[in-house]
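Record now logged underneath.
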Amino acid sequence: PRAACPELPVWSAGAYEGVTRRLLTAFKERHRESLAVPLGSRLAASVAALAVAYDVADPVVLVAVPSRPAAVRRRSYDAVTMLADTAAEQLRATGFDARVRPLLRQARQVADQAGLDQGARRLNLAGALAGERAGGVLVVVVDDIVTTGATLAEASRALRAAGCCVLGAATVAATSKRHTRLRPAP
């Protein structure tokens, strides 16, 4: 994460390949909502590892990167928010105080990110998100996959501009070109 997003530590539960890739694809594209449980467990592991690494004892707010409205309509659910809710529920079951708050919103439309390189993704996303004022709350940005880090960087920027303290980001998976730079969650 240092190359793409030096101010934002990113933790991922594993690589976006094999079983993890198939599970995420089925969850997002084939309406397999029941997969939120195993995928949410992976996200919870990433959040917990990030919190342990930074010795966080305070409650943490998980902030899901908002899905594009067209994707939510097509799926009939917001995939990342569902994963965040599941992860927070699993973390609370272990005694870790985690809550989900919708502190990010789309500020403008963006082009589809598929096929864009890191620079093009950053340009595409610049100013695309806005954060809701939350009075210095400690947050972890959560998403399903990290590719270049551009989405996580934009989410972090928007939340910091809104006064949040961004601890870092946690994802279910990372693409193979990013995975070697990430700190894997246990």
Remarks:
- The first helix runs from residue 18 to 29.
- DSSP finds seven helices and eight strands in the chain.
- The first strand starts at residue 10 and ends at 12.
